[in-house]
Amino acid sequence: MAGSLFVEIVSPESALWSGEATALMARSSAGEFTILAQHTPTVGDITPGAVRVSTAEGEKIFAVAGGYFQVGPHGEREGTRATVLAGVAVEASSVANAEEIVLTLVDPTAVHDATA
Question: Which CATH architecture group holds 4-106?
Answer without folding.
Answer: Sandwich (2.60)
